[in-house]
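Repro case for the chain-ordering regression, as requested:
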Amino acid sequence: MNARLPAIASLFLLVLASGAAQADAVTDLLAQYQKQGGTNFSIASGLAFWSSGHIDAKSGETRRCSTCHSEDLRRTGKHATTGKLIEPLAPSANPERLTDVEKIEKWLARNCKWVLSRECTPQEKGDVLVMIKSK
Amino acid sequence: MSMIEARNRSIRRTAAALLAAIWALGLSSRAGADGIDVGPNTSPAYVSECGSCHFAYQPGLMPARAWRKVMGNLHDHFGDNAETNAKTRDAILDYLVAGAADVARNPRSRAIMDASTPGDSGMRITSQPYIAGLHGGLLDPLFRGYPRVETLVNCPACHIKATEGVFKARRYNISDDAFRGRNVATGMR
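-- result from build under test --
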């Protein structure tokens, strides 16, 4: 019970610090990831995760989150295969981001499998969410 | 005199408005599912789910069997993961099958069906025999080398009305020398 207090406090601060819808979606998800074993989500870990490369066994290519979304989350990305432009992920550049729990979950599931060839852990998802939110 | 002129002018204006309305009607019906081309998408779910990564190819561009195969392989969607929840996937499959080239009555879809063979299980738009045939070497960047095709999947790069489901209008005349050496996706040399 006591161990949960700092987490609950930090979630409360998150709510205060940002727009209502965005905070709701991210707060809900972080609480969920925490229940699944995630802890101390950090922007630094999220950033490291964002740029780390993973070799795809089938194609042999190195894939990163930034392959499609670019290193700068405030910029427009580009789909690696189709070339379709991807709106910026940073809420500061695109306020619609991080407002829809279902959408966040869907894209994390899809894109983790593309980059890592597996689902992301609750820790990885939490880290990357707080990182995106900070942008 | 002036009253007659005014009346004539108003008659002319009414006639012009009527003609414009008839012309507009003709245009909209031609672009429709039973018009000369496949027509625009009518499912917002399809456009948002599939169109977020690529051009939302209209259902009438492939037979139902191809759409079924695509929608049954979303975990490996041409090398990408495109999974969505079962409810959304089923709704999209229903939309695609209901408007697939087998059932769509427009001449474009019928030509796509005529060119395909029943056993053909190709699930790429660009490998449908009618579409591949019309584009010749254009769709294969290795065939001639020009134009430099950055991606084969971006119909609107050349077909300026592709989003409306009208593929007749094109940005480039393929026989035009100026077309050679251009990047199809961007229009830049």
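Ordering looks correct now. The interface with chain A takes residues 52-55, 75, 78-85, 150-151, 153-154, 185 of chain B (CB under 8 Å).
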